[in-house]
Design goal:
Layout: H1 16-35, E1 39-40, E2 46-48, H2 49-52, E3 66-68, H3 71-76, E4 84-88, H4 93-103, E5 111-120, E6 132-141, H5 146-162, E7 168-174, H6 175-184, H7 192-199, H8 202-216, H9 221-232, H10 240-245, H11 253-270, E8 274-278, E9 292-298, E10 303-310, H12 316-319, E11 325-331, H13 332-339, E12 352-357, H14 363-378, E13 383-387, H15 392-401, E14 404-409
Parallel strand pairs: 1-5, 7-8, 12-13, 12-14
Antiparallel strand pairs: 2-4, 3-4, 5-6, 6-11, 7-9, 9-10, 10-11
């Protein structure tokens, strides 16, 4: 059987120059989130299948890479439904919930967690959509107040600004508002899930598209018209309070006031780094969200790059009592695609020094070269010492790609 040299479809591999850039970005993220008091943790890539299929992960539960049972356990199974006992995690939130319930006695309260790790989804690979990709999550567990949302949003906007990604827009909503909007229009509770799936496409299909899709599901025209009436009055300049003041509804004033506080405080804190707005069409697909939800879009790229929200019920499924929790996740791969375009501006090109040593160089000169390299490294300069190859032109070109702006050919030292 022949070996296959290419990676499995949708599974990325990184060249050295790519890893230099990734490590630069990850270090920036770690430093920034560390300044906000978030503590780095690590959870396993493999999770119990029961945890991954608890009907809280939305469509992602259909994209799990399942792991077969082994040995006698597998032999005893007679149906396909029971041949898996674990799977690769599809996000970092489900593992965090299990992690906290298992380690709560060793953790501070509230607990500000920070995770970086690969996740896997058995999706159809295409541009911008991989089967393996890295997520960076910050979460606050044990704080049921608006302080958690404010801290998460400001930390993430600050981090994106530190990476030089330009201004952003933070869209904020609340799952309870989404639910009440639909109930005010006389939809049944069992209809909420398909309604939210359609509303999530609002940016692409508009109000008429939402109406047509709801009607195609056989929903009442009166209910649909009333619901779309909400959407037609939506204006990005409207506050949450003003938006609902225009409508006759039973929206909980306390929920509205809480969301208003989150938006107004964070808006003042991020200032020129971005804007924070109320968006009643924001859904977020995960079924575990219970309160405020948020998403960040980079203004210059019209690209959603981070999202999250409050999930006060998930951890309680492990511990037997509710534990408030709120989190924010950024997609590293999307950030990397943008950062690559800004590599020169970040000063990563040309920061290193490379010595190219002829294979016949004398021992004394080799020692001198390594001594010079050691002195440069004391000043935190990245230095490489390598033997020259015959195709010196290609070698120089590859070194430049890796960030070595100064290349010293030691051949003349011997002549």
């Amino acid at each position: 059987m022949d070996f296959i040299k290419t990676p499995v479809k949708g599974m990325p591999e990184q060249l050295p120059q790519d890893m230099i850039l990734r490590e630069f970005v990850l270090n920036k993220i770690k430093v920034n989130y560390g300044k906000y008091g978030f503590l780095l943790i690590e959870t396993p890539a493999v999770e119990h299948i029961e945890n991954l299929t608890n009907k809280q992960g939305g469509e992602n539960e259909q994209l799990i890479f399942k792991i077969l049972k082994r040995g006698e356990k597998l032999k005893k199974e007679t149906t396909l439904d029971n041949i898996s006992d674990s799977g690769l995690r599809y996000d970092l939130t489900v593992p965090l919930a299990r992690f906290y319930s298992n380690n709560a006695q060793h953790l501070p309260m509230p607990f500000k967690a920070f995770q970086i790790g690969n996740v896997w989804r058995a999706d159809n690979p295409q541009k911008g959509r991989l089967r393996q990709f890295m997520q960076c999550d910050i979460d606050i567990i044990g704080d049921r107040t608006k302080i958690a949302e404010i801290d998460l949003i400001t930390a993430t906007v600050d981090m994106l600004s530190e990476l030089g990604l330009g201004k952003c827009t933070v869209r904020v909503n609340d799952r309870r508002i989404l639910k009440q909007m639909a109930l005010n229009c006389n939809f049944n509770p069992e209809q909420l899930s398909p309604i939210f799936v359609i509303l999530d496409k609002y940016d692409k299909i508009g109000v008429e598209g939402v109406k047509n899709k709801l009607m195609s599901l056989g929903m009442s025209e009166n209910n649909v018209d009333k619901y779309c009436g909400y959407l037609k009055t939506y204006d990005k300049t409207l506050s949450c309070k003003d938006f609902f003041a225009k409508e006759d509804n039973s929206m909980d004033a306390q929920i509205v006031e809480n969301l208003e506080d989150i938006i107004n405080i964070t808006k003042n804190l991020v200032k020129d780094k971005g804007n924070v707005i109320f968006d009643p069409t924001l859904v977020r697909g995960m079924g575990y969200y219970t309160g405020p939800i948020f998403e960040i879009e980079l203004n210059s790229y019209h690209l959603s790059i981070a999202g999250g929200g409050r999930y006060d019920k998930m951890i309680g499924k492990y511990m037997g009592h509710d534990v408030p929790a709120c989190g924010f996740s950024i997609g590293l791969e999307r950030i990397m695609s943008i950062i690559k375009e800004k590599q020169k501006a970040l000063g990563l090109e040309g920061a290193g020094v490379s010595y190219l040593v002829d294979k016949d160089t004398k021992r004394e000169k080799i020692e001198e070269i390594f001594n010079q390299a050691a002195k440069l490294r004391e000043d935190d300069t990245r230095v490489s010492v390598s033997t020259k190859i015959k195709n010196i032109g290609r070698q120089r070109e590859e070194l430049k790609k890796q960030g070595y702006g100064k290349i010293i050919d030691t051949y003349e030292w011997e002549r």
